[in-house]
Amino acid sequence: MRKLCLLAALCSPFAHAEVVKVEANSMMRLPASASVLRLEKLDVADYGTLLIPAGITQVDIDQLHLGREARITLVPAERGIELRVARADLGEGSQINARGATGTFEKPARPARDLSLRIESLQAPQLSIDARGGTGAPGFAGLDGGNGEEPGCTWGAAGSGANGDNGGNGQPGAAGGQVRIELPRDYPAEQIIVRVDGGAGGKPGEAGRPGAGGKSKGCFVYRTDGGKSGRAGLEGQPGDVGTAGAVTIQRL
């Protein structure tokens, strides 16, 4: 019953819920019907993950707790997101993940989601944010060359094998995110780790293999020579690395 009440509360344009809890070693996805959420308490237990959909653009949290290796993962989106936290207690290895999506043969890599994070009171051995761009899609593999035709005993010579096609180039990686952080003045700078690297370029496509020449054939009167094998194609080029993002840190 409590979970049903929580889902109902999160389905208004400006949603308010008392507590959202993610159990250890599990994942929860917030409903995407509300663009702005207000939570009195968000508790993600050890090794748990809270997934925030692309349609949510602002989350206000009175009290945030992330357990050991817990994650808040932001789904990639063109529009950035604001996280405003009054009090945060972050466990060892916890992280806010705003990484872009890896490209596929059908879709290009997606950039990291831009993030504006404000934490008024912070207790944590480390504040870790990953806003790297998505890795580019790999290049297409080159087609293999066809084999040469076999010779006959009364006509023709063995056919040569066809050349393999060149592999396609990898696609470029996506851009890293624009991250703006507001933190208490006394939180140590060396405990802040933010990654905004551009995504790695896609791997080069493999070269097509050469086609084999037609095999030599012994006949009653003479012997036909075998055909020459084709040449292997060339491997494609790796994709370009995506543009790095930027980090701005302000003290409260």
What are the main properties of this structure?
disordered N terminus, elongated, 252 residues, 1 helix, mainly beta, seven-stranded parallel β-sheet
Describe the 3D structure.
With 252 residues, this protein is mainly beta. The protein has one domain. It has one helix and 15 strands, in the order αβββββββββββββββ. The strands form three sheets. A seven-stranded parallel sheet has the order 1-3-5-7-9-11-15, with no helix packed on it. The radius of gyration is 28 Å and the shape is elongated. It starts with a helix and ends with a strand.
SSE topology sketch:
Elements: H1 2-9, E1 14-22, E2 27-29, E3 36-44, E4 49-52, E5 58-66, E6 71-74, E7 81-90, E8 95-97, E9 115-123, E10 127-130, E11 178-183, E12 192-195, E13 217-218, E14 223-224, E15 246-251
Parallel strand pairs: 1-3, 2-4, 3-5, 4-6, 5-7, 6-8, 7-9, 8-10, 9-11, 10-12, 11-15
Antiparallel strand pairs: 13-14
